[in-house]
Amino acid sequence: MFMDYLKELECKMSHDYLMKDANVTSFVQGPIIVGAGPSGLAAAACLKQKGIPSLILERANCLASMWQLKTYDRLKLHLPKQFCQLPLMPFPKGLPSYPTKQQFLSYLKAYANHFDINPFFGKQVVNAEFDVVCGVWRVKTQEVMKKGNDNIIIVYVSKWLIVASGENAEEVVPQIEGMEQFQGPILHTSLYKTGSMFCGKNVLVVGCGNSGMEVCLDLSNHNAHPSLVVRDTVHILPQQIFGKSTFGLSMWLLKWFSVHFVDQFLLLMSDLMLGDTSQFGIQRPKIGPLEFKNLYGKTPVLDVGTVAQIKSGKIKVCKGIKRLVHNAVEFVDGKVENFDAIILATGYRSNVPSWLKGSDMFSEKDGFPKKPFPNGWKGEKGLYAVGFTKRGLLGSSIDAKRIAEDIETSWKDTKAKPLA
């Protein structure tokens, strides 16, 4: 029986270096899930539907900390809600096609309540490693108590480990020559909330993904004077075509036509609806948006009004940055312009390699599973990944369902009983 197995395991722990500085060792009956974002919640819900308990460890003090703490106020889902709902529970009726940040957060809280998911908050995972002697995962966490500065070390032990810490766990902050000399604020979009604090200011936004484009639009709407750094080629598509979601329409067309055909259709509609963006300094890649996404994992930008502001001159497009000097920026084309602030829309990265040790499942280079979608969800020895598909919440839902189905088999084999 699994309980007997765990009791026997206690006798073997003295060999493990992870236990030497642990205040507490906690045996978890079901899988350990690292991360209480949408992916972690989806995995926990799918497991619970099959009668399998789980324990979520979350470093922040809230659900979906990325959404709650590191997103701007005007954010809405970029895809229609039917592509963003989590398994087993749709969005409530009456919500718009593109729910707001607050509406999405309310949905996530209701989701956790519905499935009685109660993460352990304030648990920073600092190490997770498979114990080859005992055949279990040991997940070491550190927390700082609210009273005092004592570090409490807890090691959680389970047969299964689900990595749900996300594609966007840590901010990417590029090092630009002269950053220490620039006299204005330089902040990552994780700290940006609204353009109201930049009214009348010249603001340079570095990065032309969905966040960079939307931050520029928000700045313009708050009477700031934004400029957008576009260093690489990028596909910009209308958010809707013929009143339908561009993403949804693409998925429908792919059922009957090739990727190349759908790409050509998207490019044609984009040119008709948005115009030739190259005349404003935004060049498209030579291959189509869907093929580009499949090859490089880079999602096309879905325009929500930024292109119109670029056309009107309210948002300027700039080349790459060469260096910063005091209140000015020198660009690679030799132009020098003054700016009051710089916002880095330079994205995020996975932090899995910093804490998951001894596994060959994740790449040390980018922190993503080495196997591409749809095969990156399962590793060896009870290790899983959810939400690393580069396909948003839809990819997370697919992963969560597969993981629950796979664990169900081994769960039944253990004939687990409640721990005494």
Quick gist of this model?
The protein is an alpha/beta fold.
Task: Draw up the topology in text.
Elements: H1 2-10, E1 24-27, E2 32-34, H2 38-49, E3 55-58, H3 65-69, H4 101-114, E4 120-121, E5 124-131, E6 136-144, E7 151-158, E8 161-163, E9 170-171, E10 186-188, E11 202-206, H5 210-221, E12 225-229, E13 236-238, E14 240-241, E15 244-245, H6 246-253, H7 259-274, H8 289-296, E16 301-303, H9 306-312, E17 316-318, E18 321-325, E19 328-331, E20 336-338, E21 341-344, E22 348-349, E23 356-357, E24 383-385, H10 392-414
Parallel strand pairs: 1-7, 2-3, 2-8, 3-4, 5-23, 8-24, 10-21, 11-12, 11-21, 12-17, 13-16
Antiparallel strand pairs: 5-6, 6-7, 9-22, 14-15, 18-19, 19-20
Helix pairs in contact: 2-10
Describe the structure.
With 420 residues, the chain is of the alpha/beta class. The protein has helices spanning 2-10, 38-49, 65-69, 101-114, 210-221, 246-253, 259-274, 289-296, 306-312, 392-414; strands at residues 24-27, 32-34, 55-58, 120-121, 124-131, 136-144, 151-158, 161-163, 170-171, 186-188, 202-206, 225-229, 236-238, 240-241, 244-245, 301-303, 316-318, 321-325, 328-331, 336-338, 341-344, 348-349, 356-357, 383-385. The strands form seven sheets. It has a five-stranded mixed sheet, with no helix packed on it. It has a five-stranded parallel sheet with strand order 4-3-2-8-24, covered by helices on one side. Helix 2 (38-49) runs parallel beside helix 10 (392-414). The radius of gyration is 24 Å and the shape is globular. The two termini are 13 Å apart. Residues 1-7, 13-19 and 416-420 have low confidence and may be disordered.
